[in-house]
């Protein structure tokens, strides 16, 4: 009972913080996800150091992740139209180049592993959060610089997908989806998650005219497919490392990667989808 109450309390605080940061304004959105980016990179690096015996600096990887997020945020929310964008990314590029050069002088560990996992911390963890800055400008009018509904919609679809998958999986689940990686996932649960996400897409189409009904539904299905894959990918990593949770920063819910594993793959996939239908 105590663990259940802790889980509920943590979930409530997490949801309020996430919703408040996104809904308030672009600066609270930026501050929230800058912090989430650094914490997620830190958690990923800590896991890699422990289980792969790498030695690259966690603090340096966090700094790089922050610089990438800051460059994307300034590009889409502060930089004036017509001004060059590339200089905003110069600090990040220089930091990454220095990380590569640093491995030339590392004689006590495996430089290739260090560089590979450092880059993975940026591509797999930091980049998807940075891309939320791009997503938060999708569908804005000329007089707008921030559209909270677009980044929020990813989490809405993920929450509806998780709820539908849980309900259908518990009641109807018979056929395992990927038993070796995630024994509890079933195709019935996947179908239930997709059904719930379609419902969310229909609802969102009534609150925003950024996309048509079918475009919202299409986005929901993209999120369902890629969020499920993102969850399976993190489950594969945890299974190899023989751990249950990626961290313990969220009591009763595990770590940051446990909470955002679905987002890491869903965000870039949604960006690609919106580009294909000419919303971005």
Give the key terms:
mainly alpha; 74% helix; globular
Q: Care to describe what's here?
A:
By secondary structure, the chain is mostly helical. It folds into two domains: 26-145, no CATH class; 146-280, no CATH class. The chain contains nine helices and two strands; from the N terminus they run ααααααββααα. It has helices spanning 2-24, 26-52, 58-77, 86-102, 111-135, 149-172, 187-207, 213-241, 256-276, and strands spanning 176-178, 182-186. Strand 1 (176-178) and strand 2 form a beta hairpin. Helix 5 packs across helix 9 (256-276), helix 6 (149-172) runs antiparallel to helix 7 (187-207) and helix 7 crosses helix 8. The mean pLDDT is 88.
Helix-strand blueprint:
Blueprint: H1 2-24, H2 26-52, H3 58-77, H4 86-102, H5 111-135, H6 149-172, E1 176-178, E2 182-186, H7 187-207, H8 213-241, H9 256-276
Antiparallel strand pairs: 1-2
Helix pairs in contact: 1-2, 2-3, 2-5, 3-4, 3-5, 5-9, 6-7, 6-8, 6-9, 7-8, 8-9
Low-confidence stretches: none
The arrangement of helices and strands along the chain is HHHHHHEEHHH
Mean pLDDT over the residues: 88
Specify the helix fraction band: over 70%
């Amino acid at each position: 009972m105590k663990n259940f109450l802790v889980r509920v309390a943590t979930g409530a605080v997490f949801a309020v913080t996430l919703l408040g940061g996104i809904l308030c304004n672009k600066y609270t959105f930026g501050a929230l996800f800058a912090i989430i980016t650094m914490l997620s990179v830190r958690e990923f690096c800590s896991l890699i150091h422990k289980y792969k015996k790498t030695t690259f600096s966690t603090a340096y990887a966090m700094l790089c992740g922050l610089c990438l997020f800051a460059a994307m945020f300034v590009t889409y929310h502060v930089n004036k139209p017509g001004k060059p964008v590339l200089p905003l990314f110069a600090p990040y590029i220089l930091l990454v180049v220095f990380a590569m050069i640093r491995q030339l002088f590392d004689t006590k560990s495996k430089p290739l592993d260090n560089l590979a996992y450092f880059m993975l911390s940026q591509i797999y963890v930091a980049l998807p959060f940075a891309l939320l800055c791009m997503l938060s400008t999708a569908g804005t009018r000329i007089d707008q610089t921030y559209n909270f509904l677009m980044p929020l919609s990813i989490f809405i679809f993920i929450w509806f997908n998780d709820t539908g998958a849980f309900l259908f999986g518990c009641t109807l689940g018979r056929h395992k989806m990927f038993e070796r990686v995630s024994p509890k996932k079933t195709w019935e649960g996947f179908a239930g998650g997709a059904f719930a996400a379609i419902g969310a897409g229909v609802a969102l189409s009534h609150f925003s005219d950024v996309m048509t009904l079918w475009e919202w539904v299409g986005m929901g299905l993209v999120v369902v497919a890629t969020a499920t894959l993102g969850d399976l990918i993190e489950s594969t990593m945890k299974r190899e490392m023989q751990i249950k949770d990626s961290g313990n920063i969220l009591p009763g819910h595990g770590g940051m990667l446990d909470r955002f594993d679905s987002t890491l793959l869903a965000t870039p996939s949604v960006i690609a989808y919106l580009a294909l239908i000419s919303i971005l």
